[in-house]
Amino acid sequence: NDAAVALAEACAGTEGRFVAEMNERAARLGLTGTRYENASGLDEDGHYTTARDVALLSRELLRHDGVTGYTSVWQDSLRDGATELVNTNRLVRFYDGCVGLKTGTTDAAGHCVSAAATRDDMTLIAVVLGAPDSDSRFGSARQLLDYGFSAFTKAPAPDLSAGLLPVRVAHGAEETVQPVADAPAGIVVEKSRAADLVAEVELPQVLEAPVEEGAVIGSVTV
């Protein structure tokens, strides 16, 4: 908690200005049920969040390279071994694929955890707030992750090559332009429906020159 305040002061000059930036960032991320009053997360009037918002925040955090290099460490030491650190997230050690992310406990919030795990190139996030004790939060998070990995999978996007036909260009140096799909690496779906994915390509009959590379000219609905 002290480190959070020190970081806030180093980044923004004061904790208050840093908290203002936290709330601005939360708004941009769509955290509609969140309001920050301090940098540490300790209990304070007007300081609150929701499980949904913690999940969205966790997803954003996982997009930053190097984060799991810290959050997935079970045990480490400082000062030439004089200080031993053990991760408060027991799932890092005891749940297959767990890569973090964060525990939290206060009198008002109860025992909380945001747990992320990766298996077969799919990362799931389970958020538990207000658990009565530490064992309950980890047990509930484990159940949520178990359900997610048993019921869902990351399926490849359907083949779009047959639908991406050249589009005619009016008044251009070239008669046609070849569309290219910016398809995701995979789509999370229920395992029972993984083979049922179909794609519908929507493209215009003709485009008006000039057509810049990277311009959005159509859409694909999966």
Can you lay out the helices and strands and say which pair or pack?
Elements: H1 2-12, H2 15-28, H3 51-62, H4 68-71, E1 75-78, E2 83-86, H5 91-94, E3 98-106, E4 110-119, E5 122-131, H6 134-151, E6 152-155, E7 167-170, E8 176-177, E9 187-190, E10 200-202, E11 206-208, E12 219-221
Parallel strand pairs: 7-11
Antiparallel strand pairs: 1-2, 3-4, 4-5, 6-9, 7-8, 10-12
Helix pairs in contact: 1-2
Describe this structure in words.
The mean pLDDT is 95. The chain contains six helices and twelve strands. The two termini are 45 Å apart. It has helices at 2-12, 15-28, 51-62, 68-71, 91-94, 134-151, and strands at residues 75-78, 83-86, 98-106, 110-119, 122-131, 152-155, 167-170, 176-177, 187-190, 200-202, 206-208, 219-221. The longest helix has 18 residues, at 134-151. The strands form five sheets. It has a three-stranded antiparallel beta sheet with strand order 3-4-5, sandwiched between helices. A three-stranded mixed beta sheet has the order 8-7-11, with no helix packed on it. Helix 1 (2-12) crosses helix 2. With 222 residues, it is an alpha+beta fold.
Number of helical stretches of at least 4 residues: 6
Give me the side-by-side strand order of the main sheet: 3-4-5
- Major sheet details: 3 strands, antiparallel
Q: What is the gyration radius calculated from CA atoms?
A: 23 Å
The unreliable regions are none
The computed structural class is: alpha+beta
Question: Averaging pLDDT over every residue, what do you get?
Answer: 95
Dominant shape = extended
Which band does the percent of strand residues land in? Answer: 25-35%
Order of secondary-structure elements:
HHHHEEHEEEHEEEEEEE
Number of strands: 12
What share of residues is helical?
25-40%
Kindly, what is the distance between the CA atoms of the first and last residues, rounded to a whole number of angstroms? Answer: 45 Å
